[in-house]
Amino acid sequence: MSPLPADFADLERFGAWVLSTERERHARRYAVSMEEIRDFYDTMKPRMEAVVAYLNKYALDEMPDEARNLYQLGLSLMEVSTAVEMFGRQRAVEGFDAAQMVPIE
Predict the structure, then answer these.
(1) Tell me: the pLDDT tens digits for 9-23?
(2) Which of 5, 6, 78, 82 is deepest in the core (most CB within 10 A)?
(3) pLDDT attached to residue 82
(4) Helices and strands counted in the chain (H then E)
(5) C-alpha dihedral over 70, 28, 81, 42, to 10 degrees?
């Protein structure tokens, strides 16, 4: 992974969450423990206001690599937020297998 912007260097330990597709983010959520998800969530969520403020400096298609990595961390936070806030586990409660859905990317 390319590094993150200097103000977010403390988040580099979450480099495995820098994923470019929804399928990759979803697969990672299913593959790791709730402890790891919770650590990522608890660290990223309080930083999101600063993340959004930083990313707003760039057009989506003109982000430098460091900003794109930060953007992808934010997308991963959105992926895990339901696991933490609603389900209390990686998978949906009484849901269907997400592998049945094939997003268009």
Answers:
(1) 999 999 999 999 988
(2) 5
(3) 78
(4) 4, 0
(5) -70
